[in-house]
Design brief:
Shape: globular
Strand content: 15-25%
Largest sheet: 5 strands, antiparallel
CATH class: Alpha Beta
Order of helices and strands: EEEHEEEEHHEEHHEHEHHEEEEEEEH
CATH architecture: 4-Layer Sandwich
Strand order of the largest sheet: 1-2-3-7-4
């Protein structure tokens, strides 16, 4: 299974949703950097399940344990970092009737065809969103490291269903918006009224035994110009590679993205000017990237996430032994909307990608 990412900073994630533990191994992290364990724990709680009524009832503390790579209380020693998260609240019996009946929109069918009957699909197995927890360990450390370089990363719920939050100002997004989102970490939106409408919608679909999708918008500020390469190793490429590793992501756009395809060049082009002695653009439809390289403007992207595929409504499937159609009713504990808990995962993934890009430039 392909579970590795990175060029200079390399990560490898292992384990399954209902395994006793899941973990991550990382190399290339900045030796000598001391991170704040309490800040990391707070970041991990934002992704952890069972935090509120809008997420799965499954409760996991998601406390990282460092087996190597850390000396003293929390200083990276330059060796291979190995961190694990122990699972304490699995309920594998909920999946006992799914052994040969693939769940619609899950990886079940494709995984069984590729890996055979031995593949572990309890709770989604290795294909589960739970595997984003170890990603957040290294991502949380990278977020702290980037702050020391005056590079900041923040994301928010951009939409749930057809309800949209305010977008980041692509030119001036920064400390004010990031602090606001930090104060609303339980439901990170810029517009509280939009957030309340989103909450209501999520509760409605939960009551119906259904789910809903949405989008996340993320910004990275403080990047130097010139990171990345053209063609196949650009900033978009490097970010997309890790972002598509987040289960449920079905599309990514940078800057103006698809909207730009409807415009004339005279409206979509970002003109240059000088501000405080540096060259900047008057608009930022490019999302801070030109020719695969950073421009020094805020890096802004949005990602679309599909509705949680595990729903309680009866669905059509097939018994893969008898090869007959069957009706499937899924049990278990599931998020009615995965977007909320995915917000810190996007921040973590972006931070890892940016740290890898910076390490390349050293």
């Amino acid at each position: 299974m392909s579970t590795k990412y990175g060029k200079t900073i390399n990560i490898s994630i292992y384990g399954g949703s209902h395994d006793p533990q899941i973990g991550i191994v990382a190399t290339g992290l900045p030796a000598g950097f001391s991170f704040d364990k309490e800040e990391l724990a707070a970041f991990m709680r934002r992704r952890a399940p069972g935090q509120n009524s809008l997420s799965t009832p499954r409760k996991e503390a998601d406390i990282p344990e460092f087996l190597s790579g850390v000396v003293g209380d929390s200083t990276l020693d330059g060796s291979e970092l190995h961190a694990i998260i122990r699972s304490t609240n699995q309920r594998s019996s909920d999946y006992s009737n799914l052994s040969f009946v693939p769940r619609p929109s899950h990886a079940d069918f494709a995984a069984r065809m590729k890996y055979g009957e031995a593949v572990d699909l309890r709770g989604g197995g290795h294909f589960s969103g739970r595997l984003t927890a170890p990603l957040c360990i290294v991502g949380g450390i990278c977020l702290q490291y980037l702050k020391t370089k005056k590079i900041h990363v923040a994301a928010h719920v951009s939409s749930i269903g057809g309800i949209t939050d305010d977008r980041f100002d692509p030119v001036n997004v920064g400390e004010k918006e990031f602090e606001l989102l930090a104060s609303r970490s339980a439901f990170p939106v810029l517009n509280e009224q939009a957030g309340e409408r989103m909450r209501t919608l999520i509760e409605e679909v939960r009551a119906e035994g259904d789910s809903i999708g949405g989008t996340v918008e993320c910004a990275v500020t403080g990047l130097p110009a010139g990171l990345g390469e053209h063609m196949f190793d650009g900033v978009e490429n490097r970010l997309a590679a890790i972002l598509f590793g987040i289960p449920g992501v079905k599309g990514i756009e940078f800057g103006n993205g698809f909207e730009g395809s409807t415009l004339r060049g005279s409206l979509n082009n970002d003109g240059f000017t000088v501000k405080d002695g540096r060259i900047v653009t008057t608009t930022n439809n490019a999302g801070g990237i030109l020719g695969g390289m950073s421009t020094g403007m805020p890096l802004v992207f949005r990602a679309a996430m599909k509705p949680t595929p595990s729903i309680f409504k009866e669905q059509d499937s097939v018994d893969m032994v008898s090869m007959k159609p069957v009706k499937l009713s899924i049990k278990g504990r599931h998020d009615p909307c995965i977007v909320l808990r995915a917000v810190p995962v996007f921040e973590a993934a972006a931070a890892i990608a940016v740290c890898d890009l910076l390490a390349d430039a050293r």
